[in-house]
Amino acid sequence: MPAPPPTIRLRPVFIVMALGCSALFLLGPLAAAVVVVIFAPVDVSMYLAPGMIGFAIIMAWVMSSSVQWVELDDGVLRARKFLTRKIVVHRVRDIVTVEPLNSNLMGPMENALADRMMGASNRGYELRFRDGSKLGLARGDMKGLDEFLKVLAAEIAERCGPLDA
């Protein structure tokens, strides 16, 4: 029996958090918009309801990049999107760059604190593909990331040679 392909998975605590955030930030504003349309005066609901629906749409767009798992099998990366359950397939040879994840929104003190909490200054990587798509692999979120990255690095070296990272 062949060994299963190297796979990283979203940690269970993050699955629970993602489900809670989905309910709070997607279903909550939509339910509130319905309540506002039914019970609020028209001059109030005509502003609030579209804003709430717009907020839910933006949150769905932001959350749509999250993945539940990623596997590497014979030069092919497969990832299951958390929100849509869609399986996205990329070839390793289509990776253009591998960029470290960092937060430009936080200052030096906040970044240092986050590094201290995670025990490393490396928070993960973003794989960028030839077609312009991206795949984020976050150290804190994904179980088994370090081992997966070693296998991926060997696969990239074998199939692509050096990258721009």
Automatic annotation (TrEMBL):
Superkingdom of origin: Bacteria
Keyword Transmembrane included in the entry's annotation: yes
Keywords: Membrane, Transmembrane, Transmembrane helix
Transmembrane listed as a keyword: yes
Residue ranges crossing the lipid bilayer per the database entry: 12-40, 46-70
Name of the molecule in the record: Uncharacterized protein
